[in-house]
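User: quick one, sequence for these tokens?
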């Protein structure tokens, strides 16, 4: 008996007692990979990639192209986190594509404005789907989305006051 984490579906389980739980999740992920053509990176991988990308974005010694590509890489980790959440909550089929997600997201502090401008030029700028400063896409009309906009309003009030 041992606690293991599957590298494929990120399921943490006891290999003696939780086999059925893991098998169910593993098969679900196989089905999702078949349909999407990829799976979102797991939490630890995302953190590792995001840390490196953030230091590249903020390093003004790098040429803009390198910093821009680091920003796209960082946004990919946010996309993977948002998609993972959608998989857990059961609405991954409705989750926007990476390109649409980048158009929706507005990260204020995380990405300098000059790089955000380049991202908007490449991917477009879709307002009203994800409030500024929030990294997750939620279903339209869901409570989670309403709460994300309320959180943004609350933070804005605090920053202005
Ligand atoms: Zn697995």
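Assistant:
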């Amino acid at each position: 008996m041992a606690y293991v984490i599957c590298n494929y579906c990120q399921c943490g389980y006891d290999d003696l007692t939780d086999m059925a739980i893991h098998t169910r999740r593993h098969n679900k992920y196989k089905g999702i990979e078949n349909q999407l053509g990829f799976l979102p990176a797991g939490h630890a991988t995302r953190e590792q990639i995001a840390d490196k990308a953030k230091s590249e974005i903020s390093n003004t010694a790098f040429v803009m192209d390198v910093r821009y590509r680091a920003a796209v890489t960082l946004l990919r980790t946010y996309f993977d986190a948002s998609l993972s959440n959608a998989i857990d909550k059961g609405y991954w089929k409705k989750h926007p594509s990476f390109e649409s997600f980048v158009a929706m997201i507005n990260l204020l502090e995380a990405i300098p404005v000059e790089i955000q401008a380049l991202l908007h030029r490449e991917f477009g700028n879709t307002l009203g789907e994800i409030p500024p400063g929030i990294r997750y896409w939620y279903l339209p009309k869901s409570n989670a989305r309403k709460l994300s906009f309320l959180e943004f309003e609350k933070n804005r009030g605090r920053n202005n006051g």
